[in-house]
Amino acid sequence: MVVSSKLFQKLYLIAHKYYIEEKKQQEIADELHINRVLVSRYLKQAREMGIVEIKIKGEFTEVESLKKKLIETFSLEDAGIISMSFRGDSRFSGVNWVLMAEKVDQFLQNNATIGIGWGSTLEAISRNLKPSKQLEGTTFVPLTGGTNRLPSYFHTNDFVRRFAEAYKAHAKYLFAPFVLENLLKKESATISGDLAEIMDLWKNLDIVITGIGCYVRKSPLFQNNIFDEKYLKKILEKDVVGDVMTHFYDENGNFVDLDIYDRLMNISIDDHLKTRIRIGVAVGFKKVQAIIGALRGKIINVLITDVDTAELVLKYQNDYQLEERK
């Protein structure tokens, strides 16, 4: 049976909600604004196409087992793992972003101040939000200033707007450059009431949600000459594997100190680390080392990823521990 990509994604999404999330057919119908009979028909079609294969696997499903291992291995607050890999059939990619957004949704709270970072993963999530609740008492805040010299996945004000609109929440925007020419200009800028308000909010966040950067040498920050070559040299000398909000770190989560940090308009690493819930969103083989560093350094304490990436992270950490024992 040949079906369109759009129908294929819908079948997978409905099957996931019914079999994995254990939602009732009427709940799914209400959420997707369709008839319950149609939900039943889609589930039957998903089984016939082989999208659904029912097996008895024991006490834990694969996803639940991976989640438990991640939490125990890295002493996490929690983890969210989607059951479909981003490496698989490209027809699933749209559904995967919806599932990633639903995992983020589970951690969002009302009457909270939530900082939103940047990254291509976070941008995709912000475009596929499917709120399960309204957060009218919550405020979303960008974690950094901006520049037109960087791609759209660095435009945090846009992400904040999407989250706030989707959740009927409040938004605060940061209208300031990401990099200032000198420290004096930064000190002058922070006198502004709007900027001072944002920086005060950074010190009292309840949740932060950030992407996890990797491939430092190919980062737009260096490709577009936002940072000088001297900083890249220092970063490479320190064996950096990733960054969170431009705070670069090695495989053990040790940060590299750069003098340019004094001129950046973004959340400090101290304010980031004292936030109670620190969510990192990342998928893919290329992100594994960066995820490992963020987990070992407690830079994040909640990881949202896909099943393949979770397996790779655990294998990498297990191999490392075995090597350390030799």
Give a quick rundown of the structure.
The protein has two domains: 5-48, Arc Repressor Mutant, subunit A (Orthogonal Bundle); 62-325, Rossmann fold (3-Layer(aba) Sandwich), CATH 3.40.50. The chain is built from 14 helices and nine strands. The protein has helices at residues 5-20, 25-32, 36-48, 62-74, 93-105, 120-126, 156-166, 183-189, 193-202, 220-223, 229-237, 269-273, 288-296, 307-325, and strands at 78-82, 113-116, 139-142, 170-171, 207-211, 240-244, 247-250, 277-281, 302-306.
Description:
This protein is α/β, with parallel strands linked by helices. It folds into two domains: 44 residues, Arc Repressor Mutant, subunit A (Orthogonal Bundle); 264 residues, 3-Layer(aba) Sandwich (Rossmann fold). It is built from 14 helices and nine strands. The strands form two sheets. Strands 1-9-8-5-2-3-4 form a seven-stranded parallel sheet, with helices on both faces. The chain has a two-stranded antiparallel sheet with strand order 6-7. Strand 3, helix 7 and strand 4 form a beta-alpha-beta unit. Helix 1 runs parallel beside helix 5 and helix 13 crosses helix 14. The chain starts with a helix and ends with a helix. About 2% of the residues have low confidence.
